[in-house]
Amino acid sequence: MRDKVRRTGGGGRHQTKTDAAPAFKELVDMKMVDDTSFPVKIQGAGVEPFEMQVHRFWLVQDAIMAVLAREEVCPRSSLSMALAGATLDPLTELQSLKGLKPGATLRLVEEPYSPRSARLHLCRVLELLRESGPQDALQEGRSPSLLETVAHTPDSGSINGKNLKRSSSNTKTDPASQDGCPPEYLLPGSLERPLMALLPHSSQPERPSYLRDVSLSCWNPPPGNRKLQGDFLYITVVTLEGSRHDITSCPRGFYVNKSTEESFDFRPAQSTPVFHCFTDLLCHISPAFKQALTTLKSNRSHLLEVEVLPTPYRTLNWLGPSCASKTHKNSFSRLGVDDQATTQAPDWNEELQAARDLPQGSLEERLQRDRALLQVNSAFVWAVTQGAETVMDGFVEPVNGNPEDPAFLWGGLFMSQGSASVTLGGERGRRAAQRLELAGVQAYNDLEGAPQGLHTLPTATVDYRGVRLSAQGLAPGLEGSEQNQESSSPSRGLLYGANAGPQESPHRRQLLQLLAQAAKALSLQRHAVVAPNGHQVPLFTSVDAQGLLGADGRLYLLDLFRTLPADANFCPEAEGEGPELAGEEEVKDGCCEEEESSKRVKSEGWPENYHTESGLPRSFLHNLCRLRRELLQAFIEHKHTQFTTRVRELMDENGGFEECATAGDARSTKAVRAACKDVGSLSEIIFEMRFNPNTFSTGVSFPSCDSKVTKLHEKLLREAAAFITKEQIPSIVECWLQGNDVPVDGASLKQALHHKGVNLRYLGHMLDAVSHSERKEHLRHITRLIIGEIVVRSTRRIFNSFLQGVEVSSLSGAVSHFLCCLLVPHFSPTSSGEDTKKKSRRRGRGAGVSESTPWSTLTGTELWNLVCQDAAETYAITERLGPGPNHLVERYGLQKISLLREFCLKTGVQLRLRDYCLDNQSKAPIGPDDVLNIFPVVKHVQMPITDASKAFHAAQNFIQKGLLEQAHGCLKEASYLFGRVCDELHPDACHCLSLLAKVTFIQGQAAEARSIQLKAVVISERVLGFDHPNTIQQYVFLGVYMYAGGENVLAQKCLLRARHLILTIHGEDHPYTATLDGCLGLVLTGEQAEQFLQNALRINTSFFGAMDLHTALNQHLLSQCMCTKGDYRSAMNYEKEAFTAFSSMFGDDHPQTHCSSEFLRTITQQAVRVERSLRQAGPDQTEQTVECLTPTTETILEQLVLVTGIKTNANSNKLQEFKKKLLELKAAEAKKLIDSPVNSKMEKGEIMCDQEVVSLEDIKSGESPAVEKDHNGPEIQQMAMASEGNSNTEPPVTDHTGQPSEQIQNEEKTPIENGLHSGSDPAEAELKGTVNGDTNFSSTEDDTKTPMADEEEGVSYDEAEEPEMTLNKKEQSSSNEISPGVNGTLDAHAAESETENKEDSADVISKSTMVNGSEHSDITVNGEAGM
């Protein structure tokens, strides 16, 4: 069963123009909405009475839809509601009904069917009978939810917590875990990567059978006389008992008639009543069906709702059933209800624009709008998927006569490949134009407060069988004949564009106003170009964009593939003299000075020796290299920093900052003007940074009068291009060196680069930056990922061309042959052809593949040469890939199975679930029978879930401030809103639930955290993928919460599942593997625990060195493990190494070092006692002594929490200094010796300063207030900054039982415990200047902000799109924090915390192996996610 798009599911990312209400008001509105719910009792229509919550703002039809979605009612339909015997109007609001009070009874009334509603009822029945399990999801190419399968034990019941007994003894009957031994392939050092263990196979329970067959009767359709008497259709049912029944559908319901295969008899059978629900009739005639249906509903009641509901979009799965023929079941398609096409193709554009035009005045209206947008977009994406398959199968004829650029109309979609123009760069340029068109549509949809009235068409791109198709909804007024278009008035024609011509109309003025607003938000500059007729045309967009007024009266913007400015690094024009200027010939005549000036301007904007060092700028394979929006934002922030710094310098040179900053001082105005000129601001009086999207565009001419500003735009784009290689790429490498946002696979690598605004065409430059790093050995996992991504992307381009000449009947053989050539070095088609012939003869299918088939002549050497050539042309890498895939394995440690997975996910290829031997050099590892399917890979616009995202970001800000209660409330609100819009089946909803589980767990509610995390795991598996990096981390968190509930075996299974996934997608050589092994070493016992801890120590040592926190923590855990075994000699050796590391990093006086020394002394004393007891009393006392040194369950749990980054403790010297200073201040106040108002407020946790003075000092010093002010600002910022250097943030060591030393026990609480601001925002005002024409002198509030102020800060749209920008900055965190997580990558550092923790950081070293943001591995995506 496909992922059907329900008209009730939705969500997205389209930002709308709403009232600028504070975030706190929005959250209050959410609470008010939630407070309007009340319980009612539902009964009638043959349903067992039940209670449900309804909302006062609901319409009656909303309540009916909610009832129909209940398990107790499914699959009934055609129901109405009655109150006190009166049938309710569906369009009536519940709050207007008299007598409807909490506890009232609403009765369901069965309504007569219509022909359409009868078919819809049969559709609901079939959906129930087609209930898909993991096997069905695999066959349909969807990612299944495997949590129930992974954690299944014979006596443990359901994993969702409804029947699962919490005693770990319940799981002892599991043979795989009775002895606690993990499978051999999951042990450290194993090179086996079995795929059969990843997914359920045919040996596991299958979907039960309900009926042998159900189909339309041979007597269908009813004759005219019966149709006039109410017969809708006739159905034939064959039950499991073997009996055949003909059923009539009529307005009253369904009944069995007397027809047989030989004769038609419409009369009802004897003793057979009319049933309103079809399943009731089936239960009446078939006891086996009744039993199977009862079992089905019982099983569904134990499932989470997110396991049952369909996902809005299909998440591709690269592995299919192990035996596809056995899993193919009767889908009852002969009933014909799926084939009932609508009378006309849907108007996708009208549906989308109608959803966008919905009101947004209240929270409820916005939720309805967001839900409607997701409904339409998900249905549109599914239609695009079906359309691509139909078009490529040849069922649709092109509507044009151009064989090179065929266009198709199908199902309300316009689908085309686009023209392979030489101007754009041929085939590569055509594909880039389709991708950039989608990015342009997304850019205008994502505008915060998007201009109302500016519309874009529904757009998506789909890659299928090597062809990329662009799909759009039909624009109104464009599908008519040319005569109609010619006769239409100018107001319905082209209103905007380079070819629009001069015209004046109210619609044009409105369109220009909307475009001006959008250009300001996109940082695009209004400019003029010279049209072909010589006239100057003002533009706010690229020269290709066109604005028109549709027949529906809406304004549309089309052709947006050049929306963003060009990337000068890959524009030949960037090295030349730029675009042509109209009238330039007259200016140049006889002017040698102009020529010299042109040569100087030619390189203006490039750093010195830029081309020599980076090889840029250079030409690319197409002419559509554009900058990303993230890069533009980062570059503007970078230039603004330069601007403020330059203003300060100029003021200091002219008498000092304080003197020049006086209001009305001409020197300050002069300094601002000079700084604007120095940084390249487009304005001379304010900082304004905008870009011209037509700069460096071939064939575009600018007026000669604009030559100065044109040169300035060229300079800015050169600087922005150099900013990528000089700033962004080094910052990414440095981030990875610190262990932050470490990617695991190609998708997370792409997301990490896109987050910084770096396009994937820079992979070669990323590889150079990593290889030139002094610590390149510590980045070998990054090198491995980059090399693998380059190989897969180059291979995909060759694969697309390879499939063009392959017939449909040969696709399986061609794909398997291509994969063999890719994975087996020097693969020859000779041996595989002989094997195929032998198999074909045995199966009676002829002589096999013909030798003349073009695709069969491809060899492994030839393919690898093509891959290397494409990689050299695209990424400018040479001699990196070697002679074949084995070189990648030997040199970089790249796994072939990881390469195979990446290739399948990017091309839509699905392989049979089995273990592949990819190291066999003599036999083809993949055969034609292993290729099960090729699925369309669709990229689409992401729709907004605005209010839920705002609440989520408000919660993240509260967490950064250490305000757990407020964060918990916001997360609950966000989860509720996500459920209202998208049924929580969204990547952002998954991240929200995961963070909610963390906060709940920190608050001491482990059981509730476990139930929340269960949903997060299921959502991640179904929405992101069963083997997505985020799924790995969600399994780890679930394992911790299960361990907290005493479910030790289930915790082990979750952790082992996570290890199996990371071994498959990357391998063992990754920092996050050390995290998993540390967790497994804590939850396992005996030799396995030591084995995993030893491996974690080996990995951390290889990535971070001997003198590092990771290594020291692993040494301590191993010392603890040795103590449990009684091996005190080894325990002392490990703890000595840990002590040496702590002493080297923190010094001898640091609490960390003291605690390690204390633990070492304890071990030594214990070793002496054991040795003495062995000499005196014999070995009998040994076991008793070892038992005393076994850590408690609470200690292990605390260690798990810290290892996984759920909660970390950052302890630095500066934090200790702050605590000491705080004690001194308190003592001084007690003696009434404090006369400083700053110190007085600091003692209260309210560090307040005069905002204007602070602003001046900030600019004067050039430092962030949080960094500069050691005595007046929040010192938590200092602690966080210190922790960034990995120097002194490690919690001190205690003894093995986790008991703190006397000194630490008597210390005062941390600033967080005293209510101080934990430092996510500076406490002082900060002068930010004027950005892009908007005055932005902002000041943050004091440390004790009200919740309203906090929420107002936390809900900006930019933060909602990129939460990692704030969550992963070390300077914005402090001690005792909840690791917020970054979706899509594994952060090998545990970020510093801001949650309240009653233990001092020195109390829990024996409980941790990851702290300081150095070993936390939070996963962060894209969603969708990144395009």
Give me the secondary-structure category. alpha+beta
Strand order of the largest sheet: 2-1-5-3-4
Distance between the termini: 27 Å
Helicity range of the residues?
40-55%
Describe the structure.
With 1427 residues, this protein is of the alpha+beta class. It contains 53 helices and 29 strands. The strands form nine sheets. Strands 2-1-5-3-4 form a five-stranded mixed beta sheet. Strands 11-12-15-14-25 form a five-stranded antiparallel beta sheet, with helices on both faces. β7 and β8 (244-250) form a beta hairpin. The N terminus and C terminus are likely disordered.
Task: Itemize the secondary structure elements and their pairings.
Layout: H1 23-35, E1 37-44, E2 47-55, H2 60-68, E3 79-83, E4 86-87, E5 105-110, H3 115-129, H4 134-139, H5 147-150, E6 213-216, H6 224-227, E7 233-238, E8 244-250, E9 253-256, H7 278-285, H8 287-301, H9 305-308, E10 319-320, H10 324-327, H11 348-356, H12 363-392, E11 407-410, E12 413-416, H13 426-445, E13 454-455, E14 459-464, E15 467-473, H14 482-487, E16 494-496, H15 506-521, E17 527-530, E18 536-539, E19 546-549, E20 555-558, H16 572-575, E21 580-582, H17 584-588, H18 592-602, H19 610-614, H20 629-653, H21 657-660, H22 666-679, E22 701-703, H23 707-737, H24 746-755, H25 763-771, H26 780-803, H27 811-823, H28 829-842, H29 860-875, H30 885-892, H31 896-907, E23 909-912, E24 931-934, E25 937-940, H32 946-960, H33 964-982, H34 987-1002, H35 1006-1024, H36 1029-1044, H37 1048-1065, H38 1071-1083, H39 1087-1104, H40 1109-1125, H41 1128-1146, H42 1151-1176, H43 1180-1188, H44 1193-1203, E26 1207-1208, H45 1213-1230, H46 1237-1243, H47 1251-1261, H48 1265-1268, H49 1276-1284, H50 1302-1305, E27 1325-1331, E28 1334-1339, H51 1347-1353, H52 1357-1361, ...
Parallel strand pairs: 1-5, 10-23, 13-20, 21-22
Antiparallel strand pairs: 1-2, 3-4, 3-5, 6-7, 7-8, 8-9, 11-12, 12-15, 14-15, 14-25, 16-19, 17-18, 19-20, 23-24, 26-29, 27-28
